[in-house]
Specification:
Layout: E1 4-9, E2 16-24, E3 27-34, E4 37-44, H1 47-54, E5 74-78, E6 89-90, H2 105-117, E7 122-126, H3 136-144, E8 149-154, H4 157-161, H5 165-172, E9 174-180, H6 186-193, H7 198-211, E10 214-221, H8 229-237, E11 243-250, E12 256-257, H9 267-276, E13 290-291, E14 296-297, E15 303-311, E16 314-317, H10 324-332, H11 340-353, H12 360-372, E17 377-386, E18 393-394, H13 395-399, E19 403-407, E20 410-412, H14 414-417
Helix pairs in contact: 2-3, 3-5, 5-7, 10-11
Length: about 425
């Protein structure tokens, strides 16, 4: 690939410097200079796979012009800073606290209203551990009445040990919960999470599905558990069509990082494990689409997705049914204003246009299962992404971040919020 220019925030001097991303042999390397000293970071150990993903990114072919209306896809609202566990890996440095902080329901509602004013259709209540909040049910009830979908990640302990909690949250208006699940091996779970509560997480998934909640799993990937990725996918797919997402989040060296030393794991290493397990080939993993009505033009280095259609124990990839190259090209060339029709019906029309006519009824059945969580067919998005690295803090990624976390200074990218101060013009546009 041709060297790609960017700007890099330097945590040493606090300034921004010109940087370059280039291929060197089998690696992708990012570099920049500060005060005459050259800094380099290996961004990927698999240059060929990295290039396969990056080459299909429409964001890197962004024509520029007038800025798009700002809108975050994921709106995070921290409702508490405390957690019932102190995980050796935690980007938020959370854990049990003598004086925990709990946001009031009024505070949360006000932040949701602000997010809605910027176009948010859903919000995610985070922590700490959200289930530790004593007024969680009231918060969920009040937020859901504002007409947004309420999502909540969780370590799963209370959801797994209190069978009625998921039902109460569903009745209050919770739409989806994503369970933190990194491995099925208790000894590895103890190294990453400081406990061996694996079965409680399995039960949390069962309780949530029984309650009618939509599901996801979130796995923090380290050198200790990267080989567990295929087993996590196989387990999670058993919960489709209630299951919507499987997210592999590369470990951040920000926050708390107290696991045994080992090599960093890049996105391509996770993808290689999935390919070896039979989940497609290098061209089965796609950068996020560029689509103006969604306000989405995410940097390809922020993540890659695998799209799986499920029907009981049978699975196939979405790109086997729909020509995703042409589908994403249609989305990228759209210059339509945001509306219900352009956000929903236009993508559907393009997807059907690029599917074989004989397979359209099957595709519609899978989309119906994805939206409703009912029936036997579903669609699951498997995403692999990660926070920005401190040794190569690529500012072009922050500028296009689709995720915000609410702060007293306004909504900012989580990479900014959890990494420390960066120049004010590198705040997320949302």
């Amino acid at each position: 690939m041709e060297p790609r220019s960017t700007t890099v925030h330097c945590f040493g001097c606090g300034g921004s410097h010109p940087g370059v991303i280039e291929r060197r042999g089998g690696q992708i390397v990012g570099s920049y200079a500060c005060d005459g000293q050259r800094h380099e970071a290996v961004l990927s150990e698999s240059a060929e796979l990295y290039e396969t993903i990056t080459a299909r990114s429409h964001m890197l072919r962004d024509p520029g012009g007038e800025p798009w209306p700002p809108r975050a896809v994921l709106n995070l609202i921290e409702i508490t800073n405390t957690c019932n566990f102190r995980c050796p890996v935690c980007y938020a440095r959370s854990g049990p606290r003598e004086e925990p902080r709990f946001a009031s329901a009024d505070e949360v509602v006000e932040k949701v209203r602000q997010a809605r004013a910027l176009g948010a259709r859903g919000v995610t209540l985070t922590g700490g551990e959200p289930t530790q909040h004593p007024d969680l049910l009231d918060i969920v009830r009040r937020v859901s009445r504002l007409g947004v979908r309420v999502n909540m990640p969780s370590n799963g302990y209370r959801l797994g040990t209190e069978p009625d909690l998921a039902r109460r949250l569903r009745r209050a208006g919770l739409y989806k919960t994503s369970i933190q699940l990194d491995t099925f091996r208790p000894e590895i779970h103890r190294l990453i999470r400081g406990n061996a509560h694996v079965e409680e997480k399995r039960q949390a998934m069962e309780n949530a599905r029984s309650a009618g909640l939509r599901l996801g799993i979130i796995a923090t990937v380290t050198h200790l558990n990267v080989d567990d990725a295929p087993a996590l996918v196989e387990f999670a797919l058993g919960f489709a069509p209630a299951l919507q997402t499987i997210a592999f989040q590369l470990m951040s060296r920000g926050g708390r990082h107290e696991i045994p030393p080992g090599p960093d794991v890049d996105r391509e290493r996770v993808i290689e494990r999935l390919i070896r397990a039979g989940y497609g080939d290098p061209r089965s993993f796609w950068p996020l689409p560029r689509f103006k009505p969604w306000g989405m033009r995410v940097h390809p280095d922020c993540g890659a997705n695998l799209y799986l259609l499920t029907h009981g124990r049978r699975r196939c990839r979405l790109d086997e049914v729909v020509d995703l190259d042409r589908f994403f090209d249609h989305l990228a060339r759209s210059d339509l204003p945001a509306s219900f029709m352009t956000k929903n019906l236009v993508p559907l029309a393009h997807a059907l246009r690029e599917a074989a006519p004989a397979r359209i009824p099957m595709l519609l059945a899978h989309l119906r299962g994805f939206l409703s969580g009912k029936g036997s067919r579903g669609l699951v998005v498997v995403g692999i992404g990660g926070f920005l690295r401190e040794d190569f803090y690529d500012e072009s990624r922050v500028e296009r971040c689709p995720t915000t976390i609410a702060t007293p200074q306004g909504p900012v990218s989580p990479c900014v919020h959890f990494r420390g101060p960066v120049p004010s013009d590198n705040r997320s546009p949302w």
